[in-house]
Amino acid sequence: MAFDEICPAITLECSTPGNPLGIEKAVALIDDLMHMDHFPDRALPEHDLQLVRNSAVLKIAQGVTFGFEEENEAFELTLTDNFDCHNFTRLEKGEVFAHTTVDRPLIATAEDGSDITDTIIENDNGALPLKKSLMPAMITLDKKIILQDCLCYLLEDYR
Predict the structure, then answer these.
(1) Fewer CB near the terminus (10 Å): N or C of the chain?
(2) Is residue 57 predicted with pLDDT exceeding 80?
(3) DSSP bridge pairs for 60
(4) 49-54 contacts: CB < 8 A, separation 24 or more?
(5) Is 9 within 8 Å of 3 (Cβ atoms)?
C-alpha cells in the first residue's frame, strides 16, 4: 500500500531464505506477471484475496528457555506440537499455542514498538492462548532465527 501512488507492488512470502521450491514459485509468479498481455476483465472472487496487516511482532522474552513439545524437555516456554502448521492460518481466540512456567515468556510489540503483550496474549495458569483471533506468519522452528529475529508476526484482516 505504501507504493500505491507510485507503482504496482506485491509482497511474496516464499518460505525460508534459500528454499529451492520457494525461489521457484517466486520466479514463476514474477515471470507470469511480466508476460501478461492484459489484466483480467473480471475481478478475482473475494475469497481468492486476503488483505492483512501486521498487528504485532511476537518475540521470546529475554532469558526465557524455550522449545517444542516434541522435544520432550522441560522449558520455561513450550510451543505446541506442529506449531509451524499455524503459519498463515487463523489462530482462534482462546486456542492454546504454548505452555509456560513463567509469567511473561513472550513479548508482543506493535509497529510503533509499544508493548501490547497483555492485550494480545493471556496466561491462563500456564496455558497461553490469544485474546483475539490472529494469523501467525513467518513462523520458523529454527531456534537461532527465533532468537535473532522473532517467533512470528501476528496478522489481522485489514478491514
Answers:
(1) C
(2) yes
(3) 106
(4) 50/157, 51/157, 51/158, 51/159, 52/135, 52/137, 52/155, 52/156, 52/157, 52/158, 53/155, 53/156, 53/158, 54/111, 54/153, 54/154, 54/155
(5) yes
C-alpha cell at 104: 511473561
What tens digit of pLDDT does each residue of 93-114 get? 999 999 999 999 999 999 999 9
Rounded to the nearest angstrom, the gap between the alpha carbon of residue 59 and the centroid of all alpha carbons in its chain is: 11
Q: Can you list the alpha helix ranges (DSSP code H) found in the chain?
A: 20-34, 117-120, 143-148
As beta bridge partners, residue 151 has: none
Beta carbons of 84 and 140 less than 8 angstroms apart: yes
Bigger pLDDT: 71 vs 11: 71
Query: Which residue bears the cell 507504493?
Result: 3
pTM for this predicted structure: 0.78
